[in-house]
Design brief:
The chain is of the alpha+beta class and about 140 residues long. It contains 4 helices and 6 strands. It has a 6-stranded mixed beta sheet with strand order 2-1-6-5-4-3, sandwiched between helices. A hairpin with a 5-residue loop joins strand 3 and strand 4. The relative contact order is 0.20. The model has no long low-confidence stretch (mean pLDDT about 95).
Length: about 140
């Protein structure tokens, strides 16, 4: 395990949980690749910033039970966690939002370059989430 990479990912998720988008986004390379769960690939910090603005508008989330791992040389890392969320506003193509709470296991894979996140790929079970917010 590479402690620098683990610290980077810890800092990334601490900023997320604190709603500190300036710090969160500063930890990305300008050409960051974002593979959206069951979605498309977006490239660049501007696209990621727009994605996060949409997420923060529609959802309120905290990540808990964090486990972070890295390769020995630190070029890749992974995290497993639980998303504790509230669905605030209806997101396009998804069920109607009524403030539903959800708890969802999730994970992410990272590529790290120059002590910044160069790629993030998120995974969670969308059908599980839909079932939780459809009740």
């Amino acid at each position: 395990m590479n402690q620098d990479s683990i610290n980077l990912i810890q800092q990334y998720y601490t900023a997320f949980n604190n709603g500190d988008m300036d710090t969160f986004l500063s930890l990305l390379t300008d050409d960051v690749i974002h593979d959206i769960n069951q979605g498309k690939r977006e490239i660049g910090k501007a696209a990621f910033t727009q994605f996060m603005a949409c997420m923060n508008y529609n959802y309120k989330e905290q990540l808990a039970d964090m486990v972070i791992m890295s390769t020995p040389e630190g070029s890749r890392a992974a995290a497993e966690f639980t998303v504790l969320g509230e669905y605030l506003k209806t997101d396009e193509g998804l069920p109607e939002a009524k403030g539903q709470k959800y708890r969802l296991p999730a994970g992410a894979f990272f590529e790290i370059r120059d002590n910044k996140v160069a790629r993030i790929t998120n995974y969670y079970n969308l059908q599980n989430w839909v079932a939780q917010v459809s009740q």
